[in-house]
Amino acid sequence: MTSNSAGSRKSPKRSGFLLVTVIAMLAVVSLMLSQLASRSMRSASEALRVEKDLQARWLTGSLRDVVFDNARGILREQSLRDGVPAISAERQIRVGEHLFRIHVSDESAKLNLPMIRLALGTETVDSLMQQLVGNGLSPNPEIEDPELILGKRWEEWFDSGGSTSDGRSGKRLAFATKRVTLWGSGKLNLTACDAATIDALWRELVGRPAPDELLDVPGELPPPNISTVLARLALRETELAKVSPWLETTGSCYSVWIFADSNSRLGDQLFVEWGEGRNRSQRGYRY
Predict the structure, then answer these.
(1) Upstream peptide bond of 139 is cis (omega within 30 degrees of 0)
(2) Residue 16 φ then ψ, to 5°
(3) Fewer CB in a 10 Å sphere around the end CB: N or C, the chain?
């Protein structure tokens, strides 16, 4: 009887081994569950991030279209606030948890650098850039091939390029290019530009300061036609031939920078639209 009772009891060593095995298995299962939970959380976070990025991209496209449809009105409202013609205006827009800042400009009120470089040469356009480009950016001396000039992007027009890494982000470019452009007809819209832009171009073309009759054109109501403006100036034929290809009193070319302040992953984006009705053309760039 004593022998059977002893045989029915388990060995202490065997019990200890089973206990260690069970504990090890529980630890492994716990670790696997922890990794699975962590992986699930990362997947959920990634899915949420992708969803937010998609929403922001969709909103960027919608904002672009709305701004282009209302660009003239936005700039007119800014002009009334400032009391002078507004070349550009900035607005902050919140849609749900997304925060955007838009910078809309009238590109027809700026000097067209590619056209000037092709017609008047490197020295003239570099002189104008030195006078009118802000934020300490200097012209890129390597832009020489006339066939490539029209296809250049903003960062390629400035020395050392325009990447965010060296401080030439979209925000900096938006401010630096408030009086110069790469787009549009090539003519300066006198009714929408500022006196500094008119004077800089006039000095390069004629060799003297712009007359008051010309500097008074911006904001004039009703806007005069270009023949009326040129007649007021009483120019010599040689002077008229120099200035008339570069001036107009109408224009339809707008740009909008969109800065996704609440989502740095999207980057700064620039869109440009010019023309009227079905002839409107649009380009977009990401910086």
Answers:
(1) no
(2) -65, -40
(3) N
Nearest 5°: phi and psi at 269?
Answer: -130, 140
CA–CA dist 186, 149 (Å, integer): 13
Residue 31: per-residue pLDDT: 76
The model's pTM: 0.77
CB atoms within 10 A of CB 255: 26
Strand pairing category for 253-260 and 98-106: antiparallel
| 148 φ/ψ angles, rounded to the nearest 5 degrees | -100, -15
pLDDT for the residue numbered 163: 44
8 A C-beta contact, residue 157 and residue 122: no
pLDDT of residue 165: 43
Quick one: pLDDT at residue 32? 77
What CA–CA distance (Å, rounded) separates 231 from 66?
Answer: 39
State both tokens at 244: 């008339």
Q: Can you tell me the distance from the alpha carbon of 76 to that of 89, in angstroms, rounded to the nearest whole number?
A: 9
Residue spans of the chain under pLDDT 50: 1-3, 5-7, 161-167
Q: How many CB atoms neighbour CB 117 within 10 A? A: 24
172-196 pLDDT, tens digit per residue, is 889 889 999 999 889 999 999 999 9
For residue 273, the one-letter residue type is: E
Number of H helices, E strands in the chain: 10, 9
